[in-house]
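Researcher: Before we compare anything, I want clean individual predictions. No alignment, no superposition, just each chain on its own. First chain goes here; please echo the sequence and then give the structure tokens.
Model: Echoing the first chain and its structure:
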Amino acid sequence: MASEIKSNGRGSVRLVLSYIIDWIIIIAIAAVGAGFSVATPNKRPFDVTDADISFPYVTKEKVSTGLLVAIGLVVPAIITFIVCLAVVPGPAFESASRSKIWKRKIWEWNAAWMGLGLSLAIAFMITSGTKNLVGKPRPNMLARCEPDLSRLLNSTVGGIGNQVDEGINLVSWTICRNSGSTLDDGFRSFPSGHSSFSFAGLTYFALFLCTKLAVTIPFLNYQDIDRNKQHVKPRKQAAAPPTYLIIFPLVSISAAIYISSTRYSDFMHHGFDIISGAILGIVSAWLGFRWYHLPISRGGGWAWAPRSSDRSFRRGIGLVTYASDEKSYDRNGRDLECGPGGEAVSDGNGTVRPYKTSEGSEGIALTDLDHVQPPGVGDSSRRSFQ
């Protein structure tokens, strides 16, 4: 299959085109988010005596939108590019040709950027759309509004007015002296865009660094436990990575936390808005990362393989994976991480061959990877799909 694809070229063109369309869809998702961001938001009624929306309007933000994009998108994109071209997943190849290694590096780079783009695009679209649908006033809403109290009765849309001593009146935005984009933006408090964008980009970046540097908590499979003696038999199966490596993902997450915290100190968002945005960003980052990358603990630093050329534009119903045309599998005998080809191959000393798929365009044969030891893989390489 792979040789046929490479010989006629039609399969590889179809494969490349399928990923170009993927990029177009990612950009389209971001474009929809941009359209949402400039739409007029719903303007939720508010109380002019509400202390929660009476904070001052700070015009000079600690983290501007431009700086947010630089930290959450540009910096991760540059560093992931450098890492993908400088680092081969697992130890260096001993037998693969230089051209085949570069093909793998270029694929890893493409997968890294697609995951980052998908994470940010999803977070941006959902955040922008939700802001306008909810229309929640920001903490500095009254400072933006500058309400004209002479319009109080005409602007009242709810509440109980003079029926109680407090005289609660919910008013519409028509009570405001100001209008335009400054006022519109005052109704975009939920969720925090800075929080969702920063956590989407920087959490993905942290996960990427963890998978490339093998920063993971050690684990043991259930096969490694001697159930009869009730103790862990192979103690040397795993060890904690050097502690200094955790600094890299920690810096990334800390940057996201700082950016989010400035939205509270700048009176731009309520606490719930910031937490909600952070959760949205983390979920988006996890989705973008796992869509294109193997699990950190068991993936050996690899991205998922390219789709099979024959499956580039077809649904995978009835198939094991989009990386192969195999239509059936033995649930108990196949290895999840080694792909549809079967069980992992080990030489008895912990050397494990990565899976081989029918992607063809990857350009690395199984024999080229005989000496690759994925980080974090111990002596027992079998990962049964249970």
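Researcher: Okay. Second chain, same rules.
Model: Second chain and its structure:
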Amino acid sequence: MSFSIPFIHKTLFSLVRINASRRLYGKNILRRRPVRVLNVPEDKVTLIRDETFSPKLQHTSEIKTEDTSIGLPRNKDGLIVPPYEKLQKNDSRFTKTLTTLKSRKLREQSGKMLLEGKRLINDAIDAGIELETIYFSRDKELSDIKFKFQENVEILKVFYKTLQQWSNLTTCPGIMGVFKRPTTEKLHILSEPVIPVTIICDNIRDPGNLGAIIRNAAAAGCENILLTKGCVDPWEHKVLRAGCGGHFRIPIINNIEWTHISNYISKSSTIFIADNSGDIIESSSTPEFINYDEAPEENGDEEVEIKRYATMNECNQPISVDETYNDPAELEKYEELTFPCYLYSSIKFPKENIVLYVGGETHGVDARVVKLACDYGGKKVKIPLENNMESLNSCFAMTIILYEIKRQLKEKYILK
């Protein structure tokens, strides 16, 4: 035999490789056309990374060098995520924090608020609200959060099922942020009032309604919002969700007693009550402001002085207390008082110190706000309705009147 055994093995092995390649890559693997290669001198070879080849890629790389996220690590999917700590199931650092933020009393004591969803969290960060802790389940949600203005933020990864159990939404967004509740002073700095209007909300119990009021008042450019005791907590999750970031752009003062209300409005203010229960007084011309100095008062000045005294508020600031707002005999006179009501578009609103009262839809106008309007000089305003409808939503009524005020003030400015 002229052939050796190793040669036979090599021949069989080469045939097996050819058959295997044909099975994997198909029949056309050996039918490819040859590629013609030119012998180009080395001095004429141009690199692919030349600026004439990909100017757009170089432009984007220059923009990325200015990004504040440079230096942060990337995960396996290429997402830029800051360093974080992974929590185990039912970790006390997560459950205790969420338990505190679910209770109104504990939430007010801690001075914190909980936001869900990357859009609301980024909105709060853009407004300058201080972020303390982030809970997330996936790197995708974390990479969308803007951390460029925040420092010393605790970032904790939690199982999605754990977030879902504590979420207030039907579909958990997979990310939660714990923020320090902004003070009234800070919100005064952040807000940019356009119209001299203060909103008084009384007996607003629906979270979505109060959130919409805060949102529209901030959008119209009001000065601040006063919430009497009995309104829903403005920092509750449903109110924050419906507010769409309005909480961070207008000062909100909560839990105000009626006996303290005079400390939060100017003495030269004019009260306007949004009410649809009265009959509109027809007038051919724009009515002048009504003077209520002749309203019946049985108490003398000395008795009023006894009922007015000074105390300290939650910020240790001295405030006056007017106990006449808790006197049934005093309030009974204002319940029977026929208060004039005007069409909202027929009133000539003042240029400053406007106070607009918005009450609950079911309880109607409180006698205490009628007394407040009489003390400061004001009137009821009504929006006409059709099809035998009794009332409008409180938020819609307030918004219509606010933009009428804004329209009048803008026309006065143009005329000047």
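Researcher: What stands out in the second chain?
Model: The two ends are 118 Å apart (CA to CA). Additionally, The chain is about 35% helix and 15% strand.
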